[in-house]
Amino acid sequence: MSSPSDCEVETAESGQPSPTMEHIVFETTLSRHKSSHVFRVSIDGQTYLLKVYRKRIRRHYDHSDREIDPFTCESSAYRRLAEGGLCDEGIVPRFYGIITDINPSHIPHLSAFTNDGHPVNAILLEYVSGLRPFDFTMFNKQRMDGFYAALHKIHRLGILHGDIELRHMQMQPSSGRILWIDFDHAQTFVPDSIPSDWLRRFEDEKRYLDCFMEDLDLDCQEGHGNRTQKWL
């Protein structure tokens, strides 16, 4: 039986922490979903976000032209985001690397994964404190333009977010920083070779954002969140 130290580690860039499980201290669980659990963790006293994924097995009814495994979707997107400089810009969290083939039976915080019958994978990201979903109380034109510009840059790298929702548009009120998060449905393409049938989906994401912003603007003017509540 393998131990936590048997897992495979890939660090995003030199000079960044090497995210081995034996050095990670679990502090708190931030969220639990069917496909993943998210934790605030620390390494050598520094705080990070660790997202651990349940493996998604392809079924006969799954579309063959898209990636369906959440870990593969998100890790592929973050590699491209980091290479393209968007992590450094701050419009997505910084990406510190991946950990694969983790045996959850050795880690109490991962006990929910032990009955899956196979190892799990994880990514290590920047922990941004105080993040809140973008809502009408935060809305202004500068921030709206910031989200549009950020999505344009993400698309320009060949990344389709795949799950455009207000809950994935976050803001840190203390700094005014805005971020796109949660790329576990993302599809990552070579930018100049995106299949024509997928180009329409990139346009669809822009239209979804148009709808969000129109509703946010109206809710802001009227002082309530009646329209945008349905998007959260």
UniProtKB/TrEMBL annotation:
Signal peptide: none annotated. Residues 1-20 are annotated as: Disordered. InterPro entries: Kinase-like_dom_sf, Sim4_Fta2. Gene3D superfamilies: Transferase(Phosphotransferase) domain 1. It comes from the Eukaryota. Pfam families: FTA2 (PF13095). This is Protein kinase domain-containing protein.
